[in-house]
Amino acid sequence: MTNRSRLPVAELSLVFIAAVWGLTFPMVQDAIALLPTFTFLAYRFLAAFAIVLVVFGRRLPRLGRAGVRAGARMGVFLTAGYALQTLGLEQTTASKAGFITGLFVVLTPVLGALLFGQRAGAVAWSAALVSALGMFLLSGAGGGFNAGDALVLGCACSFALHILVTEPAVKVHDAGALLVVQLGVCGFVCLTVAAGLGDLAVPREMSVWVALAVTAIVASALGFFVQTWAQKHSPPARTALILASEPAFAGLFAYLLKGEVLDARGWVGASLILLSILVVELMPYLRPARPLPEG
User: Fold this and answer.
1) Which of 281, 273, 286 is nearest to 139 (CA)?
2) 5-20: per-residue pLDDT in tens?
């Protein structure tokens, strides 16, 4: 099968993953109302860790000490991101959390410039300002910028830092083995916190089990596999455009499953955030497209 013939399947797969990631916002919000936050996260990431361990476990010896340290750093930021996001969902709406989380795309070049001396460029800084205005309007539409919004903004910063430490690591270490380490760090840290808080419990409600299955198997383990495979067959600009739709899917499922509705001010804010995300995602690819090679 040629790259061209794989393109529709690859892009439909990316749409599916973006939709699942959006679905997890209202789904997780409902689950953590029935199961403590760190317990849910521990079960989710330990299950995902077990899956990727089966697939990539043989690659772990390739990492060495430097690779393990790199994977652990990635795991720290991944843990912080999901912990802040899930705690934030206890105090804000799923739709707002989805759009604010999406700001990690805009924050990545900004934090890269501020913390690592990377060049962000005028477009990235402008996108950051536009997204800040969008977040102001979006939060105002939901009763003001609250503690939950602040936690989710911290999540976006953590995800941006995760990308910044991941980029140099995957250039010199096996990506699959790094994934095993970081998911293991995330799972065991959350398990330790949950145990320390005395929150470990067996889920009793079917909705929690469904949320765990979707987030661990589909959103985490399968999501990684599909994204990696699809990016080999879909042009980068199209891939970025499709994956940037995650906040929109979060808003859609928050409406369908929870009845959340943004007012006019909120929609303007959400649109500005999406616009800033798209600009930053597509910025490296705004040049004439080359034909896909056959093969």
Assistant:
1) 273
2) 566 777 788 889 889 9
